[in-house]
Amino acid sequence: MSESKPPSPTTGDTYKGWLFKWTNYIKGYQRRWFVLSNGLLSYYRSHAEMGHTCRGTINLATANIVVEDSCNFVISNGGAQTYHLKASSEIERQRWITALELAKAKAVSMQAESDDSGDEYLTLPPTSGQSGGSRNSEVQSTLRVFSSKVKDLSTCNDLIVKHGSALQRSLSELEGIHVGGDMGDKVRQVTERATLFRITSNAMINACRDFLSLAQNHSKRWQKALQTERDQRIRLEETLEQLAKQHNHLEQAFRGNSSSNPAVGNKGKGDASDEEDDNEFFDAMEDPAEFITVPADPKYHRRSGSNVSGLSSETGTDDQSANLDELSLASSPESSQSLELSRQRRTRIPDKPNYYLNLWSIMKNCIGKELSKIPMPVNFNEPLSMLQRLSEDLEYYELLDKAAKCQSSLEQMCYVAAFTISSYSTTVNRTGKPFNPLLGETFELDRLKESGYRSLCEQVSHHPPAAAHHAVSQKGWTLRQEITLSSKFRGKYISIMPLGSIQCIFDKSNHHYSWKKVTTTVHNIIVGKLWIDQSGDIDIVNHSTGDRCHLKFAPYSYFSRDVPRKVTGVVTDQAGKAHYVLSGTWDEKMEFSRIMQSSRGEDGAEGKQRTVYQTLKAKELWRKNLLPDGAETMYFFSSLALTLNEPEDSVAPTDSRRRPDQRLMEDGRWDEANTEKQRLEEKQRIVRREREREAVKAADSPDDSPHQDNYRALWFEKMDDPVSGETLHVYKGGYWEAKDQGTWDMCPNIF
Q1: Ramachandran area for residue 281 (φ above 0: left; ψ -120 to 50: alpha; else beta)
Q2: How far is CA 609 from its chain centroid?
Q3: CA-only gyration radius of the chain, Å
């Protein structure tokens, strides 16, 4: 080989040369160009890439270098990065090891010198084998010292109180006695107690001085460490942004070459397979906002009752009216809190067992397939069914209670939009998969006494899986939805596309709203920590007035400067005039601002003209409830979710609470749950085949004709909605009456 010459140090302690790097089991070791400089080991595919594309870099200051055999060695920084390398000969390997050890020692020395030399509590940076564990141990040790000092202060405080009280009593007694024989004894007693008080006070002062000195020393160090972390983060963000731009340019150039030379394009794709990132992110290029908001002109806060040019009659009312509208929108009375609680709900479930199972070992054969047809062990589930997850949409039912009281349809739209967004707040840490409901399975959520509503869900179809949901409130609203989930495994992430419609009807105003859900994506299926994102657009339509709200769920981008999980929206009337702007995040809170005036702004990115809205001060519309204590060990369930699978005697025999595999999983008996889950799924398949045979016989069809499943839902029926023009399963009644009478003879035996 022309590059077989062993590497040698160059100016600036830079070391360069060819090494073989392990990529994967298919390609094995691949030849890469490595560069060692300033304590950093970087690698490229070739010399030519050094100017623009670095394939990876590892910091030797925290790295561990291990020699495996005559030619192989491993460099690792504690698990985040590991390079398995092979030299062409033992001599070349030794040269690399020597250069790496020298570079590591220099990097550690430079890092130590950069710390504050005046800090007596300073420790060396973590070396191999210590990593983050040493840093954590140091913090724990410091906390123990602080705790000891606080106990000393507390003890001194108790002694001061004790001796001070005794001294006060002695002084009082001294004032009350007459000059005589007892005078000398009392004076000595007062002197002794005063001496004890002085000693205790001095101890308290010394303890305070020690604590203050300790706090100042550590505060100085921690502030410096925090600033260093901030600086490193800024540099990392800048580097990542630059790499993203380089990646985008290279991708565009690659596509251009691929279109002109398909053979070259295919080769390039294959060669890049071993350098893919562990995490799957969306396009780093930010999608420019469709509009921007600015504070409204002060004249809108002081103007008279006359209308302002360019505003509608509704928006052109005086400022007092606008403020009253926003006040009513931001804070409605919570009469539901005065309702009498019917029962005490549970606040805990058994902790999640720590069972390990490799998700990739199961999912690698499912790429591109519909996941609802693939049996999965309960290890990837949470102890709730999809029907119960659907019922969790009602966690923030108060938003619909407030919407029912609104006089303005535009204000009502804001509440409906907030309710729509709030249904995603429970998903941010919920990476567990809910149980697929069995056909005919139901779930009731009766909160009539506590919250004034009750709801019913039923699995109305199995392939494709579809669930119907009906909820009605004493506050004057009805919510109904039919959701069919379509999910596909894409290799590194799972896409879950909810199909179907959600409708909300208000009794008093007869306003009829409808909308659809956005796409849910579960990332890092192969490696890394699972995380969930919501992305897409939602259009909420008031079919009675023509009002609309367009919500945009921004996909997560690693390089975006925007707040993660951002949601923006605009509420418009029938004529398309904007009245409210919504902004916030789907996992924390939403705010709204009233629009006083709008205008066309300057061209933004890609030549798109953006609308500029002048708005009043934003007010909070919705905020997520805090999770209960210990939620991280209980599948990150909310307070409502903890109660959904709580056993209840009067529910239907088809209710999800009675599902045995789900109950076993909640109790931590996962092996038994897996066995029971397989039994239920096989029972469902037998019932379905029997139903198909009966359908064939009833139609007097030949045996080779297509089998039709003639299943009909028990509590719902399929209807055409004349208002929205959609077809969905609608509750036909009878369930709550059957519950009151305790007659469940019509329910199938599905468990």
Answers
A1: beta
A2: 33
A3: 34
How far, in Å, CA of 6 to CA of 34, rounded?
12
Please report which confidence band the pLDDT of residue 372 belongs to, taking 50, 70 and 90 as the band edges: low
Does residue 34 belong to any structural domain of this protein? Answer: yes
Question: In the Cβ-directed half-sphere of 730, how many Cα atoms lie within 13 Å?
Answer: 13
Query: In which domain, by residue range, is 390 found?
Result: 355-533+629-699+711-737
How many of the other CB atoms lie within 10 Å of CB of 360? 9
In this structure, how many other beta carbons lie within 10 angstroms of the beta carbon of residue 353? 11
Question: Could you tell me if 679 and 750 are in contact, meaning their C-beta atoms sit under 8 angstroms apart?
Answer: no
Q: What is the CATH number of the domain that holds 105?
A: 2.30.29.30
Mean pLDDT of 186-204: 75
SS3 636: coil
pTM of the model: 0.59
Query: Rounded to 5 degrees, what are φ and ψ at 4?
Result: -75, -10
Per residue in 48-69, pLDDT (tens digit) is 887 777 888 888 888 888 888 8
| Residues 262, 11 contacting (CB under 8 angstroms) | no
What is the C-alpha separation between 560 and 678, in angstroms, rounded?
Answer: 44
Instruction: Tell me the one-letter amino acid at 30.
Output: Q
> Residue 29 is inside which H or E element, if any?
strand 28-37
- Res. 10 pLDDT band, cuts 50 70 90: very low
- For 521-532, the DSSP string reads EEE-SSSS--EE
- Residue 238 in domain: no
Residue 152 located in a structural domain: no
Please give the torsion angle defined by the CA atoms of residues 55, 60, 64 and 66, in that order, rounded to the nearest 10 degrees: 70
Give the H/E segment covering residue 610. Answer: strand 609-615
Residues 6+ apart with CB under 8 A from 623: 588, 589
Kind plus residue range of the DSSP H or E element containing 325: helix 319-330
- For 410, the token pair is 């535009």
Report the amino acid identity of residue 31. Answer: R
Helix (H) or strand (E) holding 581: strand 578-585
Q: How many domains does one find in the chain?
A: 2
Reported as half-sphere exposure (CB side, CA atoms, 13 A), residue 220 has a value of 13
Which pLDDT tens digit goes with each residue over 244-301? 666 666 766 665 665 555 444 443 333 333 444 334 333 434 455 677 777 766 666 5
| DSSP-derived secondary structure letter, 367 | B
- Residue 177 exposure: Cα atoms within 13 Å on the Cβ side: 15
Last residue of a domain, one of 110, 130, 164: 110
Question: How many CA atoms does the CB half-sphere of 377 hold within 13 Å?
Answer: 16
**138 has pLDDT over 90:** no
The two tokens of residue 139 are 């913090």
Secondary structure element (H or E) that encloses residue 233, with its range: helix 182-260
User: What separation in angstroms does the CA of 345 have from each of 338, 642, 647?
Assistant: 17, 9, 11
CA distance 328 to 411: 9
Which of residues 62, 81, 110 is at a domain's end?
110
How far is the CA of 751 from the CAs of 277, 482, 677, in angstroms? 44, 23, 10
Lowest mean pLDDT across 191-205, 246-260, 332-346, 505-519: 332-346
pLDDT band at 177 (very low <50, low <70, confident <90, very high): low
Look at residue 103 and tell me if it is in a domain.
Answer: yes
**Phi, psi angles (nearest 5°) of residue 748:** -75, 160
Burial of 582 (0-12, 13-18, 19+ CB in 10 A): buried
